[in-house]
Amino acid sequence: MKIGLLFLLAWLAAAEEPVHLTLHEAIEIALRQNPSMVGAREMVNRAEARVRQARAGYYPQVGFNGIAKEGLAGATNGLSLIGLPASPLYQNIADSVNVFQSVFDFGRTKHQVAFERDRRDAAEADYSAQAAQVTLEVKRAYYGLLRAQRLRDVAREIATAREATARQAQALYEGEIRSRVDLDLARANLARAQLQVTSSANELRTAATRLGLALGGDQDIEYILEPPDSETPRLGPVEPLIEEALRARPELQSLRFESKAAQERLEFVKSQKKPLLNVAFTGGYARFTSLLAKELMAGGAGFVLPLFTGGRIEGQQEEAQAELRAAASREEALKQHIAAEVRTAWYAFENASGALPVIQVQAEYARNAARLADERYREHLGSFVELSAAQSEVAEALANQSIGLYAVRIAEGELLRAIGRN
């Protein structure tokens, strides 16, 4: 599947001929190459790297130092050396291996690791949210292009019908059966239809550009798209959908992970009031000294207990508590926003799907009326105004039919996005 998708991506990049594309393929391409998805993946990678950094506190830190000096011992402090190279000898060439290990830190490392894990989980939820948004943008662009293609075809169909009517009016005028008014009206209607063909062609190119932008690739490709099935989907009542959205929306999951991270940050700050117990070892070689080998090794344990920090830790604790309360407020606000979003999308979907049968009936009646008006005009029983009005009704009905079909699909995609389904 991945190999096939790579071939399709390469094809899209170099395509000069029209490209056949399904909705599923379009979504897969966008999720891989849309720049916003690339950025979201890198944010997850960044968060994962920070988890690894935090875990390093569990393991010993091993380093190597070396020095060659001549002079007072304190003169080389700016080199930040530790172990034997930091010895107080006036003249020295030395190197050492140094090992540092935190033995007990009252949960500092544990809370830091948990904090970074929660931040990583939040980044993954943000990635899912971005994927859902990109999927919706692809659906909008895909169905928008299908709609534009259909409207172009409708415009051509109407122009062809108006051209036939203009020829008929010309023949009737030349046969002195109809007046010049009918001919001029027929030509005016034809001109409007031809103008609509030009306009629909421009709208088609714009829609293709939007699809290319959603895919994150070339915006100058002609697409041949696979239309959806004609069955209108049903998604049930709104209240269960709201409950589902409050469980499934990745934005809400991200905020919950951020709240957990804020709690871990608070616990980390509290742990800073407690003592630290660390051990260190150094051993190596020092020239120009009479020390024995065993005297060139050192080990020790250090105990640190903060007694007074000038309010630094207390301020950090207040900051962490404020962040925790703010995260809870953001979560509640997002819940309300999601509920409103689901309701709005559900109403739009119900309106679009409910209107579609009416639109289809309107189109059928308009076609029947246009056929009857054309027959009446041919038999000199009806006026050209009647025929023109019937043809205008057909044009409007066909356009509404095309718009209505894809409006249902777009509304469905927006509702699925609102409830957290892709």
Topology (SSEs and partners):
Elements: H1 2-14, E1 19-21, H2 23-33, H3 35-55, E2 61-70, E3 91-104, H4 108-174, H5 180-215, E4 223-225, H6 238-248, H7 250-271, E5 276-286, E6 297-304, H8 312-378, H9 384-419
Parallel strand pairs: 1-4
Antiparallel strand pairs: 2-3, 3-5, 5-6
Helix pairs in contact: 2-3, 2-4, 3-4, 4-5, 4-7, 4-9, 6-8, 7-8, 8-9
Task: Give a brief rundown of this model.
With 422 residues, this protein is α+β, with helices and mostly antiparallel strands.
Description:
The chain has helices spanning 2-14, 23-33, 35-55, 108-174, 180-215, 238-248, 250-271, 312-378, 384-419, and strands spanning 19-21, 61-70, 91-104, 223-225, 276-286, 297-304. By secondary structure, it is α+β, with helices and mostly antiparallel strands. The strands form 2 sheets. It has a 4-stranded antiparallel sheet with strand order 2-3-5-6, with no helix packed on it. The two termini are 19 Å apart.
